[in-house]
């Protein structure tokens, strides 16, 4: 993870200091007071239910054949429930039929807070430029990955009475 090396306010070098119970990058120049809080980025994720299956997709930036949930950044002033439906529509070309909260999950590798929803959707899949492939997975055959959105898929499946098995995550980067 990259950190600020210089203060964006006064251009002086930053140094570590204890702030709010954590070690943070901060400016020690008198009168400046800049602290790099390094707060997580909010991301919405959708367990898309389409034609009686879970729909998983593969991002164009990912090597290999890893398929995952539909995700996207929460935009300024956006409500997460609306954002996740927007992402389903933008990335898959499907009509979302609502969104039910599953849970929130930390994804420390990317410093993200995943806000996950179940999104039933209808229509014909039309992938946008971010995605290169998609597939349907029957509920009883779905496996989850032990990170971020994988935990949301696991929890949703358990809520439906299934006991999914974990899978190995291919290294994406």
UniProtKB/TrEMBL annotation:
Listed GO CC annotations: cytosol
SUPFAM superfamilies documented for this protein: Nudix
Domain of life: Bacteria
Pfam families noted in UniProt: NUDIX (PF00293)
One of the GO biological process terms: NADP+ catabolic process
Cofactors that this protein relies on: Mg(2+)
InterPro entries: NAD-cap_RNA_hydrolase_NudC, NUDIX_hydrolase-like_dom_sf, NUDIX_hydrolase_CS, NUDIX_hydrolase_dom
Gene Ontology molecular function terms on file: metal ion binding; NADH pyrophosphatase activity
Keywords, ordered alphabetically: Hydrolase, Magnesium, Metal-binding
Nudix hydrolase domain residues: 39-159
Full protein name: NUDIX domain-containing protein
